[in-house]
Design brief:
heterotrimer, A: 256 residues, mainly alpha, 2 domains, three-stranded antiparallel sheet, 50% helix, 5% strand, B: 220 residues, two-stranded antiparallel ribbon, 10 helices, 11% strand, elongated
Chain lengths: 256, 220, 220
């Protein structure tokens, strides 16, 4: 049983298997004989089934696709216009996918052939520096993956906190709050109408408005107007001068 | 492997010393190269002559019975300057705190601490100093605690256009949670694992493929 | 510190590259040495000439926007004998997924899956964990899927100066025979372990499988 399972695994997926069948039978990629290839493809799947091997859904889906193409070909052509014959060919997308897949399959092998660090070439193992003073330079780039992993780990400890937070509406208001704060950052003010300018849908307008109310409630923004009926401006409630040293004493940290 | 003549041996010995994670003994090199120790010693001597002829940035030091390449002592000042520019690495607490602030902003310190379960004052201070986090204002609740959010520098560091570009935890979990298939994509031995998919996975897989088979990826 | 003339600069630049704990940018060296970047680049060029004249055990590789010394690939077998293990070996799904992400970035998971024809969630996750792939953000289309790209570690692993240094993608207008594919890159290093095939039961796949069964990757 093991040998058969490795056998199928030898193909990355249905595209890989099809590529192999076409090559093996020396078929013309632009004129794949659907009946023949479908038959062979299904025969392989049958073999796998009789061996009680579980098949990945993708293999079954491809079987359905092949059958579909085959049946489409059997239907008489409705219109006799011979323009765009290519596009009419139900096999066109499959051919395109096969050629595209082949391209990446090949280049992935080329890539693997390059000297790999730790496999073919080795760098010096730099000893740990003896002095570890406070770094003045920027941060080591951290990926979003790390950030998400960190959050996930934290939330794993406190799962109950999540329950009422996972709420579609709440989420989009939060998103909108964040977007508004982003828009405000580094600016003195933002015009109220600008927040609604980029073709928002009705529900997005509502969410934006709710976000603004929330921000006002939190004292994070203020609204100002020079003239009656004039432009309404949105100001950040707390402006931190970028050049000014931050006072990060205890009270800045929220405990006074 | 082919037998090696002395001339070939010189750069090879240099490579072994270069890549070793500490001083390496001639004996050990001889073993790895399947040659005599005297050959190794001859190559080392040739290396030393070579380094004397045309000075390199490093020299060969015999240390605790082995050999090691070390940078020349007169370069110490420059190298130390390099060390000072070493980028700051996120500690686990810093990353956790930053993650909470990024995703929960506007958020107070006590909310952060509730989630982390530990005091986060000093971490918060560091993040403020590094300008990844800023004070947004004060919350209108008793005690008027400070509210925190992330900065433009934070977006730059993570290459985000704005905060809405942050992936949500739910999206992420979808990717991470299919633990059954976890090892399928990777294997240390180079052997392929059998294709074992349970019924549910098959269902899921086909649904997914159906959804995606329609859309055509754009040209790169 | 005294001012440096160009001749002095060559071994000094070599020392900096030697001592750095990863690829080091010319810019960073210029800063540490308080000199112009053009001076650094001239010294690097001189080093390359020097290495070409008298081969060393290592070579200078421009990688991920910086420079790094690496042992020559033909010494890999010896170095592995010294315990320099290959850290991991790519499975074919991992390589395919990585290649697609590298060439099509920024790319979504469903685009990858459309191209590969199979679910790629778990492979993607592993690539994320190995830090070869990263989340770039979210795509501004309905559903806001996450978009992926490659990392600095990816460039370092494959010794690429930047993404433009990726091998050229061959456009096919027809299928290429397996034999040609073999020569293109699927060699003993990349092949899987010998496959056990029952010729009679499933003859279709045997040709491909047998081709890869010739060589056994060496145990490290």
């Amino acid at each position: 049983m093991d040998s058969y399972s490795i056998q199928l695994e030898n193909f990355e997926g249905p595209l890989d298997l099809l590529l192999h069948l076409i090559k093996k039978n020396e078929m013309d990629i632009y004129d794949i004989p659907m009946a023949a290839i479908t038959e062979q493809y299904l025969a392989i799947l049958d073999t796998m089934k009789t061996l009680n091997l579980d098949l990945a859904g993708e293999f079954l889906l491809m079987a359905a696709t092949l059958l579909h193409i085959k049946s489409k070909q059997l239907l008489p052509k409705i219109v006799e216009e011979d323009l765009e014959e290519e596009e009419d060919d139900p096999r066109a997308e499959l051919v395109r996918r096969l050629l595209e897949y082949q391209k990446y399959k090949e280049v992935s092998l080329t890539l693997d052939h390059k000297p790999q660090l730790g496999r073919d070439v080795f760098a010096r193992v730099a000893p740990q520096p003896e002095v570890l003073e406070e770094a003045e330079a920027g941060f080591v780039a951290v990926g979003l993956f790390d950030l998400l992993e960190a959050l996930r780990e934290v939330l794993k400890e406190n799962p109950e906190q999540l329950v009422h937070e996972v709420n579609m509406e709440q989420l989009s208001v939060t998103d909108r709050i964040n977007a508004i704060l982003s828009a405000l950052q580094g600016k003195e003010s933002v015009a109220f109408v600008d927040l609604f300018s980029d073709g928002l849908k009705r529900n997005e307008v509502i969410v934006t408005f709710l976000a603004l109310l929330e921000l006002v409630k939190l004292h994070l923004v203020r609204f100002m107007q020079n003239v009656h009926h004039g432009t309404i401006w949105l100001f950040p409630a707390v402006v931190i001068d970028e050049n000014e040293e931050l006072d990060v004493g205890d009270d800045a940290l929220g405990y006074s | 492997m082919m037998p090696l003549d002395t001339l070939d041996l010189i750069p090879l010995v240099e490579a072994l010393i270069f890549a070793a994670d500490g001083p390496i003994k001639a004996e050990r090199m001889a073993e790895a190269l399947d040659t005599e120790q005297t050959e190794i010693l001859a190559a080392i001597e040739a290396l030393e002559v070579d380094y004397a002829e045309r000075p390199r940035g490093f020299f060969l030091q015999e240390v605790s019975g082995g050999y090691q390449l070390r940078t020349r002592p007169e370069y110490a000042d420059f190298l130390r300057k390099l060390g000072h520019n070493r980028p700051f690495k996120f500690s686990r607490p810093a990353l956790e705190t930053l993650a909470i602030i990024a995703y929960r902003q506007p958020v107070t310190r006590s909310e952060v601490e509730y989630l982390r379960g530990v005091d986060s004052g000093s971490v918060l201070k560091t993040l403020l100093e590094k300008r990844l986090v800023r004070i947004l204002g004060k919350k209108d609740i008793p005690g008027k605690p400070m509210i925190y959010g992330t900065t433009r520098e934070f977006l730059e560091l993570f290459g985000l256009a704005d905060l809405t570009a942050l992936p949500t935890l739910r999206e992420f979990s979808e990717l991470v949670s299919d633990e059954e298939n976890e090892r399928q994509g990777w294997d240390d031995e180079g052997a392929s694992l059998p294709l074992l998919i349970d019924e549910d996975a098959v269902e899921e897989g086909s649904a997914l493929s159906l959804e995606t088979s329609g859309e055509q990826p754009e040209e790169a």
